[in-house]
Amino acid sequence: MIDATAVVLAGGKSSRFGSDKALATLEGETLITRCVRGLLAVFPEVIVVSKRPDTYAFLRMLGRVSLACDLYAEHNPLAGIEAGLSASATAANFVCACDMPLIHPKVLSALHQELPGYEAVVPIRGVSPQPLCAFYRRSCLEGARRLLLEGKGPLDLLKTLNTRWIEAEKLTQADPEGLSFLDVDTPGDLLRAEKAVEKGRRAAC
């Protein structure tokens, strides 16, 4: 187990998906169920953050899952991060989006190992930072609250922190195909995830 709490952000607009993507199904279970279940194998607790936490109350059945409410009016991922850090009792916290169902445990371990001496550890895929697949210390909380009042987002917070940026290519030994960073924003992305799972099943046979 990694000595940290996992925070899953759920209940965004899902405008490109067309419906609540957290409740879309992959291999017979919702994306958020698959995401949370994977994190529970690595972290002692998972906090699910949403503006409508009751929608995801069924996740409590998995055990070691709690719900937190994002109280900010705007749909801003930083508000979800703030809510998750507020609800967390641990110094270290892994934050991810609910539409990332294929995060590899070895990637989580590799990122966590980089945290000592830093306030955040964030992978970069290509030229795009991945602030919703990253570790944050709870000490970031006050800075997050201040920036929320200014209408700022996660990248603005990371610019104020002692952040360890890691190129995703350096994580290829842990996750050769980079599936940890596959986020299901569209129905096409869901199809890609389905194909990746099927490919993994065939390779394991």
Structure description:
The mean pLDDT is 91. The strands form two sheets. Strands 1, 4, 5, 6, 7, 8, 9 and 10 form an eight-stranded mixed sheet that branches. This protein starts with a strand and ends with a helix. It is globular and about 50 Å long. The chain is of the alpha/beta class. The protein contains six helices and ten strands.
What is this entry, summarized?
The protein is of the alpha/beta class and about 200 residues long.
Helix content: 25-40%
**Could you give a short account of the major beta sheet?**
8 strands, mixed
Low-confidence stretches: none
Structural class: alpha/beta
| Net shape | globular
| N-to-C span | 27 Å
Percentage of residues in strands: 15-25%
Number of strands: 10
Following the backbone from N to C, one meets helices and strands in this order, namely EEEHEEHEHEEEHHEH
In DSSP terms, counting alpha (H) and pi (I) runs of 4 or more, how many helices?
Answer: 6
